[in-house]
Amino acid sequence: xxxxxxxxxxxxxxxxxxxxxxxxxxxxxxxxxxxxxxxxxxxxxxxxxxxxxxxxxxxxxxxxxxxxxxxxxxxxxxxxxxxxxxxxxxxxxxxxxxxxxxxxxxxxxxxxxxxxxxxxxxxxxxxxxxxxxxxxxxxxxxxxxxxxxxxxxxxxxxxxxxxxxxxxxxxxxxxxxxxxxxxxxxxxxxxxxxxxxxxxxxxxxxxxxxxxxxxxxxxxxxxxxxxxxxxxxxxxxxxxxxxxxxxxxxxxxxxxxxxxxxxxxxxxxxxxxxxxxxxxxxxxxxxxxxxxxxxxxxxxxxxxxxxxxxxxxxxxxxxxxxxxxxxxxxxxxxxxxxxxxxxxxxxxxxxxxxxxxxxxxxxxxxxxxxxxxxxxxxxxxxxxxxxxxxxxxxxxxxxxxxxxxxxxxxxxxxxxxxxxxxxxxxxxxxxxxxxxxxxxxxxxxxxxxxxxxxxxxxxxxxxxxxxxxxxxxxxxxxxxxxxxxxxxxxxxxxx
Length: 495
Description:
CATH topology of the largest domain: Rossmann fold
CATH architecture of the largest domain: 3-Layer(aba) Sandwich
């Protein structure tokens, strides 16, 4: 909080007369701005459409300032140092020529005295006509200290009305606060109060309730999908190289503040290239499970819009949501479909979105770990393969015989079949060139047949199904051989 106050104070001392403070928390913004005004020793005024301008600490409001034009006129003609918070400003107001003119007058008047006009409002966008007049600033989400204070306050408030029990150790409390990250104070208050009031107990199970609250916020825009995390690294055969890499970063992810003190930044992300069906998407889900972080999936098809500039705005909104939910895993499946190289047929939209994405990857502030997967490396823009975009580029190859046997064991166990009744090594040898998903489908096909015949899944039937299947490594032998040859000296093996 102190950093936010310092930054805002510095902004106003630098004579930025009109500031757009980008935030969804206007109440919290008001409290912070009031605090800054106190530090600057100047009066603080709040404007709302219903009341007009009113000074903090005094009753009533300034007559005739309910209309934004009149309020801005008053500010421009006032001769006192003051900080003015205009709440709930609409885009239509800023697009009005007369309003824009009064804002310019306010900026000029406040450039010679202490104070500023601060604009906030839902989805407020500053029109290009005010470029150079309005300074942009953003209010970061609540800090861990603010959320911890809120948690204590809620427990005390609810305790006054009924008996409540706090059954979380310090590690669980820290985990809960991390999951509250991305919510506004009001949203966090609602989620915590509901969890506590439902059964009078706040325990480890309530972390899932917080995750549900975040899910509804993420899916509101329809650009990101909140993906349930079920898989774990222990349920993924092989990928030893990838698992070892993740293991060396787990401590940083679980304790990012301590890691930053040691000079270690939050990991940026990985690019998983490889043969289709070999577990790239499953690995993305497993990372979230291993690190106990929410998993957001970006659907590239939802980004693109027929209106000029809308696709870039969609992407920026999606990235802002991901940062707001941080710490989080952002999964971009089949990356080449979103940013195909040489995509001139779309009027350059994909190239502009690519530029936006690359800039965001370089400059993002939130703890967002990107897991991008791709099948067709030839369609990927070369910028993605440049060192530094991702922490590492892994290649997920076809499983070897031992891994194929392990994959069969996992899928048989998952479907309530006893692997001991199957010659796994022999079946794995028959399935040479199979991907993990092809082995899974073989097990599922045998199950369908057994269900239809009223029989049981047997080793002979599974062997026959494997023999009938023509794997992708055979039907697409040339492209897959070329991909494996390309990756040999350009990527790190995930297997």
